[in-house]
Structure to design on (783 residues):
């Protein structure tokens, strides 16, 4: 019979590993509606008609963060027939606090005691039978990593899912217990019977959601009881309940956990002594980041991407498909649409697939091993002033390879606002697709100077930091800021299975979502460059896109590059940044263009001065990223509206930077233009947005620290 | 009153109060920092903030600004 089991537990408790073990490869990943939190569902291996829903990792069921709200709501609305609570045996007390809160909801719970092998290795033991008695629910020993105990766990849970629900055991004592009974009496009949106990505890905790369901007159009287207890115990209701839970948990643990006499530093402690050491931490971190960059951009990732793009597509797939279709008598335009439009577009996606795989692999390794938390710990202080989190460093580094996995890497950032700001600013970093454009401008207009590339990287970082400050001060637009209270989990060897699954899963997801966008967009660009407004087949130079380029030319002339070909080039960059070169190639009548565009350097010099070229480069580096990256942003930000805001912001930012650089450059060259006035105005506006005092008091920290 | 922000590396302290806004307080309590809890300062991050604490057998990092909300006394 169809059943739904909820899987819940602390972050780092091995929940994901357990989920993978229980569901095999049958997972479906999506988002919970309305939020950017990942939702995973799968079918139980041992009984395929049973669905397992993986709830987000949470430390509690408080009503204050999106993850907790989702979990709470899922359980309270009766979506689960039974619950598997993964408990990390090496962290019993804190994990059991969550267990108590789930038990309060009166649902059938099975505790999956994970990592007890680690506990045993220390020489300690846990009396599971006693634990089960005290909690009032079954406890099954499992090792998610070694896949032990899965059968027993499944059987226990299924049995629970079919059994009759029982009212929750009251685990509180004394005054608190009496107060809760009193409140239950008052609430009886006004709330769902199943959740009566739970609601009573929530009232005691001053839970804001309770106001919506409990009639206010009833709530008034119940609050009286709460007030009396608060006076008696001289403390806040929420604190009283928290303390009571810990009291219970402490007494349980004392009775079931037998500590061996062995003491001393664990392996994790010793690693941390080096990794978070005052002197070694940053060099070690720099080394790790360099390795990530090297592996993904220069060596493995870059090399393989070049191979896919060059050998596979350009030399084989494209020409052969064209031949084959033409040979079958397919109409020219259809061949062109298929080969030049769609397959080329798809090729753009598949082209950086190897790079994506490498980046996702490295990301999974960093996360799974536990090192990611240390990065956040070490780098937090600098980055948080700029509206970013310590963990924002990863997306930025990864983004130098490709913005797509970079943006997706922002998912590891817990704070919603920091996560969104990171997702929106990652693409300011020059990715490997932007390198050919840098080489083009540098070669054509600056004699191949390396300073161009260096400056682009610096400007990228500068843009991220400045944008972080500006975006952070847009109150309420990006979600709530939450306190930085972060666990530093024990290190452990990354599980090969988890890492590979994560890598495959994320890559596949990206290909599906972004892939669709890219195919459509490529088709559109193909259409716009192959036909004029009368749908006659023409050269790119007379096409619809060219006329659009011409029309937009006045917009870009204050930036120094109003030539329609430069505009068209920029537009084509939306599909993939390196397309800018091939587009210029086509527009200047070249067959093929090298990696640095050497063939078209002379043409470039004709349409742009060096200053204008630099402005052009900056605009393209900072403006909206390629469609694939926009797709990734959509996934992390959760709505098209926010994605549109992000893209709009990026374009506006790019425009102001390019304008300022060009206009101030003209002043330096001694030939100022009237456009200097709007340039100065816009920079002043940006300056205001950057320096203004924040409205929320929690943001006071940014201002005072940036200024002092 | 001394707060967690003032505790030195290696020091072991006991929590006597937790203040601050509701979200922060709840978060701290959920993570094991409440009246009567035993906390040890492990180390300060290389750049001066945040600070790593040993709480109920596991490692937790807190910003100094938030640590200031926790009143302590020596153990």
């Amino acid at each position: 019979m169809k059943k739904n089991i909820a899987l819940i537990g602390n972050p780092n408790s091995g929940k994901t590993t357990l989920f993978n073990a229980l569901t095999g490869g049958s997972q479906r990943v999506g988002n919970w509606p309305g939020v950017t939190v990942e939702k995973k569902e799968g079918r139980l291996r041992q009984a395929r008609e049973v669905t397992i829903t993986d709830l987000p990792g949470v430390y509690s069921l408080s009503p204050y963060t999106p993850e907790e709200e989702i979990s709470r709501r899922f359980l309270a609305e009766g979506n689960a027939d039974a619950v598997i609570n993964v408990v990390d045996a090496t962290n019993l007390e804190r994990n059991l606090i969550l267990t108590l809160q789930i038990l309060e909801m009166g649902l059938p719970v099975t505790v999956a005691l994970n990592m007890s092998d680690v506990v045993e290795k220390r020489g300690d033991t846990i009396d599971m039978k006693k634990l089960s008695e005290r909690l009032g629910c079954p406890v099954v020993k499992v090792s998610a990593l070694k896949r032990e105990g899965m059968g027993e766990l499944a059987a226990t849970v299924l049995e629970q899912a079919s059994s009759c629900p029982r009212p929750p055991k009251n685990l509180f004592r004394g005054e608190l217990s009496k107060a809760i009974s009193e409140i239950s009496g008052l609430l009886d009949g006004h709330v769902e019977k199943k959740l009566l106990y739970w609601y009573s505890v929530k009232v005691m905790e001053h839970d804001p959601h309770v106001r919506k369901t409990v009639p206010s007159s009833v709530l008034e009287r119940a609050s009286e009881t709460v007030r009396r207890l608060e006076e008696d115990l001289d403390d806040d209701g929420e604190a009283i309940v928290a303390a009571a839970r810990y009291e219970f948990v402490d007494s349980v643990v004392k009775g079931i956990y037998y500590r061996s006499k062995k003491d001393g530093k664990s392996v994790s402690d010793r690693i941390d002594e080096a990794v978070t050491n005052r002197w070694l931490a940053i060099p070690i971190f720099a080394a790790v980041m360099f390795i990530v960059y090297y592996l993904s951009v220069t060596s493995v990732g870059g090399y393989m991407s070049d191979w896919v793009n060059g050998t596979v597509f350009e030399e084989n797939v494209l020409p052969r498909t064209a031949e084959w279709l033409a040979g079958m008598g397919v109409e020219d335009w259809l061949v062109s649409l298929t080969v030049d439009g769609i397959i080329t577009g798809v090729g753009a996606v598949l082209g950086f697939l190897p790079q994506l795989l490498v980046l996702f692999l490295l990301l999974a390794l960093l996360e799974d091993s536990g090192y990611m938390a240390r990065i956040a710990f070490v780098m937090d202080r600098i980055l948080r002033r700029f509206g970013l989190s310590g963990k924002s460093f990863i997306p930025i580094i990864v983004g130098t390879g490709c913005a797509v996995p970079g943006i997706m890497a922002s998912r590891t950032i817990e704070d919603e606002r920091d996560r969104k700001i990171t997702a929106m600013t990652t693409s300011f970093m020059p990715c490997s697709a932007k390198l050919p454009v840098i080489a083009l401008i540098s070669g054509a207009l600056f004699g191949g100077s390396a300073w161009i590339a260096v400056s682009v990287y610096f400007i990228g970082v500068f843009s991220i930091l400045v944008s972080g400050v500006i975006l952070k001060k847009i109150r309420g637009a990006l979600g709530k800021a939450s306190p930085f209270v972060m666990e530093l989990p024990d290190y452990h060897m990354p599980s090969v299975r988890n890492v590979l699954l994560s890598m495959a899963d994320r890559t596949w997801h990206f290909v599906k979502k972004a892939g669709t966008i890219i195919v459509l967009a490529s088709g559109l660009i193909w259409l716009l460059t192959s036909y004029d407004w009368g749908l006659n087949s023409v050269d790119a130079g007379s096409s619809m896109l060219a006329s659009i380029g011409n029309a937009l030319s006045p917009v870009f002339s204050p930036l120094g590059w109003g030539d329609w070909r430069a505009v068209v080039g920029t537009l084509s960059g939306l599909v993939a940044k390196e397309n800018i070169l091939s587009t210029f190639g086509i527009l200047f009548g070249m067959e093929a263009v090298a990696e640095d565009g050497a063939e078209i350097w002379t043409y470039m010099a004709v349409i742009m001065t060096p200053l204008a070229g630099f402005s052009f480069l900056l605009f393209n580096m900072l403006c909206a990223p390629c469609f694939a990256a926009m797709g990734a942003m959509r996934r992390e930000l959760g709505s098209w509206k926010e994605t549109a805001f992000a893209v709009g912001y990026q374009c506006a930012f790019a425009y102001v930077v390019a304008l300022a650089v060009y206009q101030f450059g003209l002043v330096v060259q001694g030939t100022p233009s009237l456009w200097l006035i709007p340039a100065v105005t816009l920079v002043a506006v940006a300056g205001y947005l950057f320096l203004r005092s924040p409205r929320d008091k929690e943001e006071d920290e940014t201002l005072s620290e940036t200024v002092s | 009153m001394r707060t967690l922000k003032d505790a030195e590396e290696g020091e072991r302290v006991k929590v006597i109060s937790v203040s601050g806004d509701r979200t922060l307080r709840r978060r701290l309590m959920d993570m094991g920092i409440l009246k009567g809890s035993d906390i040890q300062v492990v180390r300060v991050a290389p750049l001066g903030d945040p600070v790593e604490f040993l709480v109920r057998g596991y490692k937790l990092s807190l910003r100094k600004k938030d640590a200031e909300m926790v009143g302590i006394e020596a153990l």
Observations:
- Residues 4-74 of chain B form a domain with the SH3 type barrels. fold (CATH 2.30.30.90).
- Chain B has one domain: 4-74.
